[in-house]
Write a structure and sequence with these properties.
Two copies of one chain form a homodimer. The first copy, chain A, contains seven helices and nine strands, in the order βαββαβαβαββαβαβα. Helices cover 34% and strands 19% of the residues of chain A. The first copy, chain A, has a single domain, classed as Rossmann fold (3-Layer(aba) Sandwich). In chain A, helix 2 crosses helix 3 and helix 3 packs parallel to helix 4. The first copy, chain A, is an alpha/beta fold. The relative contact order of chain A is 0.14. Chain A is globular and about 50 Å long.
């Protein structure tokens, strides 16, 4: 296997967390949507994931992809997520298959299941809450962005079944640097620290699996996303807990 | 509630089966993609479901929608299903919500779960097979058409949760007139007769539910899709069985 790892959406916060944590552990090829302000520490391209030529070039000689690129806005309009997130993920998978890439780690999102959060679960964000999602449930996206992430997971299922690509979908929680969100119970319950984010993606590059959906959060006292599957299959060992910052 | 039922994709085989069986039971408004060859028995429009103006006009004064329109080809290319099936279903849901339509019945497909059919299940299509899908499993589409149908189901989940639209996704099996497919075990196992198809859609217009995923097949001796949910929630009482034609 070629060891180069392609990181799409390298300029975003998840990409930043990954490169800060495991930047020295892989031979990266970064894909930026916009030219980076500071010179990156790794080889890079600038381009769009919906462009087939760009993605063919980006995937050449690559062993694995971490696919983060897309419109990251929670209130992104439909036309944008249809094009950038759904179509962009399809183009990325197709380029991966055409180039013989064995593995794709997909940045899914808590918004894929945002509509499980209803008024009927008042304790959801608190330690006394018991409701938990583990990734086997049918999705309930809370916005078009979430719909697009579910579609990305479904495309991964197809490309895994059809072409044998290893696929790990990480439903990323609330990623913030240094400390959890303040005065925001929901964000604390789904907090993902930068170092846990980097470690989780390291696990997703290394572990042995076929097709997975896991939740990407730290080991917070209160969580309504289970991290058991990530622990069992990926060997995820989170070190942070939002409760320690109260 | 306004009693008019909008039927999109009225010119296809599912639309034909519905109109043959329950054409007299509702005040229909038909939407054809191409001008019909024979003058329809009901008021109709010609237009495209991806056109917002067409859909706004089509949804006016409508109580429920049966949404069949889309590229029906099992080997449809990605760009077509992205536009016609995924985007078209979003436009239809949005027009429905904007017009105050209470209910949408969505023509999903067996292809949403086509990749459960693997070499590891050799008895799948036979009476001695025991593997069964019931609609609670995570989808495994077998082609881009199937991916688009899963995306349509997900859009329905979003529009139900966000706007309270009643949504019934019917994963239609192998619809053929008069008798099941010959020399095609798979098609026999998922056969849906014309009259069972019409009756099932009648049930989906009448029953009390929130968000459902059901399999749309006749009561075949061998089936790897459960019809229990359709019976329980919708009151589906199929009359046909592919085994009676052997």
């Amino acid at each position: 296997m070629d060891d180069t790892v392609l990181l799409t959406g390298a300029g975003g916060s998840v990409g930043t967390a990954i490169l800060e944590g495991i930047g020295d552990a892989y031979d990266w090829r970064l894909l930026f949507h916009n030219p980076p302000v500071d010179e990156p520490d790794h080889p890079y391209l600038v381009g769009d994931v919906i462009d087939e030529e760009t993605m063919a070039e980006a995937c050449e000689g690559v062993g694995a992809i971490i696919h983060l690129a897309g419109d990251p806005r929670r209130d992104a309009p439909w036309d944008s997520v249809l094009e950038n997130n759904i179509h962009g993920t399809k183009v990325t998978y197709q380029a991966a298959v055409d180039a013989g890439v064995d593995r794709l780690v997909f940045a899914s999102s808590n918004h894929a299941v945002g509509h499980f959060e209803t008024d009927r679960r008042p304790k959801l964000y608190r330690v006394e809450g018991e409701f938990t999602l583990d990734g086997t449930e049918l999705p309930r996206p809370g916005n078009f962005y979430g719909v697009s992430k579910v579609a990305g997971e479904t495309l991964g299922r197809y490309y895994h079944d059809e072409y044998g690509v290893d696929v790990c979908n990480i439903r990323i929680g609330n990623l913030t640097r240094n400390h959890p969100p303040v005065d925001y119970e929901r964000g604390q319950a789904m907090w993902l620290s930068y170092r846990d984010c980097a470690h989780l993606h390291d696990c997703a590059l290394q572990a042995d699996y076929d097709y997975e959906i896991v939740y990407g959060i730290s080991d917070n006292d209160r969580k309504y996303y289970s991290i058991e599957r990530a622990k069992e299959v990926l060997g995820y060992e989170p070190r942070d807990n939002s409760a320690e910052f109260e």
